[in-house]
């Protein structure tokens, strides 16, 4: 259950970053409210998952999902650069997240 909560928290972290960008510096109400809602929800679910997962593993996976997912969303939806080296680095982040899951004792 902790891994499911952590995965959802990571996905919400992606939404947090996307809505923060859409809020244009917190000048647009709906994206600002969505930024706050996804950010708080993400941190709440992270804290719930850390009840059973080691803090280092949980935090690393959470930030990894958020970082890689946000970079991918930026490329797909916002026109961010998708160079081969950038894609390779995102792959390394995801490999680290998967690796932490595989070697975790929980």
General description of the model:
The chain starts with a helix and ends with a helix. It has 106 residues and is mostly helical. It is flat. The protein contains four helices and no strands.
What radius of gyration results from the CA coordinates?
Answer: 14 Å
Percent in helix: over 70%
The helix-and-strand class reads mainly alpha
Mean pLDDT: 95
H-E order: HHHH
Total helices: the number is: 4
The geometry reads as flat
First CA to last CA: what distance?
10 Å
Extended strand count: 0
Strand content: under 5%
How many strands, what sense, and barrel or not for the largest sheet?
A: none
Contiguous low-pLDDT stretches (5 residues minimum) are none
Task: Summarize the helices and strands and which ones pair or pack.
Elements: H1 2-22, H2 29-49, H3 55-77, H4 84-103
Helix pairs in contact: 1-2, 1-3, 3-4
What's a quick, concise take on this entry?
This protein is mostly helical. Helix content is about 80%, strand content about 0%.
Features:
single chain; 106 residues; mainly alpha; 4 helices; 80% helix
